[in-house]
């Protein structure tokens, strides 16, 4: 199975304006400088505390990062004379820094805002403590600069398990997704799924803003799952937990029979459980998919049917009683 | 594998009707057909996919054709792009 990993992309930059729009709503960031400096770019996901740079050492200054002024920086600046402070801040703002954030509800010094306005650098403020703000902002920026790529497939939440259906076009991915929705499961996206790497080990999937929850069913055309089945039939995002590869039954391919040797597929260097599902007449892919989801849940809750049966067989072999008995020894006048 | 770059030249861009035609042409062939734009690699046999591109006039797309009949497929699809989806 090939899932093309070659078109992985990530955002190279976001504008300070875009950053502020989200940070204003989500982290209650406020601006001290109005529209100044909103056209600058943020190119790095990490944040930086410029203590050393303010003290004069700019040797390894990570200036492309957002500069966070916490208690340390502010009290250092407070201890300087006005002249010293000006020259210290000037040195810092001579670099192409994206913006400055003050934490703990601190307001900028008058000379600081004046200088920032001259240099076209935005100063934002937050009532949160430095540690908390850095924690929130890091998560936001990590998501913004995360690796992502699109796959051709359908993503459905089946009993809470994110199942990504892939396979050649025309094999029936959309039909399986529609069938699952009809049975009460929830569609995330069809045909175009954007996968985003979140942290080390999580792949999140979602649709695009234009076509999420729209679907093409051959012979009918385009349908809108959200308006047809209602809000219970959709969701915006889901972690991808199992990849199902649909293919026409091929007598030369070996399909797993016991489920003991589970295979995985690599999505942006993260291994995701992978099931190759052959399509044959009379096979209900939807029901099989539900069973795969339930089996995944059982395994997650520490019950692996294949292992349990293996264990039972082992015990039976150890007793050397190879006679295969009925599960009920004696039908004691119970003929039901 | 054949790789070609094309530009959208009609005024209305790659809207529903040309998207459907592209998918129709592509589906006649066995080869795989992908369209790349803005970091998105879209299966050219999927109408939702092609519409997702939202390719306006002037956008540049990279097309890849891969398979036994890739040559004929590329020829017919490129011709359709170059005709401006018959809307010039």
Rounded to the nearest angstrom, the distance between the terminal CA atoms of chain A is 49 Å
Beta strands of chain B, count: 4
Average per-residue pLDDT of chain B, rounded, comes to: 93
**At the third CATH level, what is the topology name of chain B?**
Histidine-containing Protein, Chain: A
- The total tally of domains of chain A equals 2
Instruction: Give the full name of the CATH homologous superfamily of the largest domain in chain A.
Output: P-loop containing nucleotide triphosphate hydrolases
Going by CATH, the architecture of chain B would be 2-Layer Sandwich
Task: Quickly list its features.
heterodimer; A: 336 residues; alpha/beta; Udp-n-acetylmuramoylalanyl-d-glutamate--2,6- Diaminopimelate Ligase, Chain: A, domain 1; Rossmann fold; 5-stranded mixed β-sheet; B: 88 residues; alpha+beta; Histidine-containing Protein, Chain: A; 4-stranded antiparallel β-sheet; 3 helices; globular; Phosphotransferase system, phosphocarrier protein HPr (chain B)
